[in-house]
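N-acetyltransferase
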Amino acid sequence: MAADIVIRDAPNEGRFVAELGQQCASAWYERNGRVLHFFRVDISQALIENGVGIQLLRVALAQARLQGCLVEPSCDFVADYMRDNPETHDLLTSEGWRLLRQ
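Structure:
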């Protein structure tokens, strides 16, 4: 089922969007210079169970890395993912580290 996931950045809307069939998930962010502040993720339990949330964050954080951005994860979904995936820690701002420790 993961092969059917379409993920894109919608910078004018301030979100990364994952689509699987008729279902959609969003990782909302505000960009301040080189910092992406992720403040909300909208995703159904069904999409979480299908791995869409993980794929969404992998793409969003890979894009942040490619763009030379740092990340502040103020929503639990992003903070939990980053906490569990140390390979993303180099993307954290000092405020991001503080948020991860909460």
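The mean pLDDT is 94.
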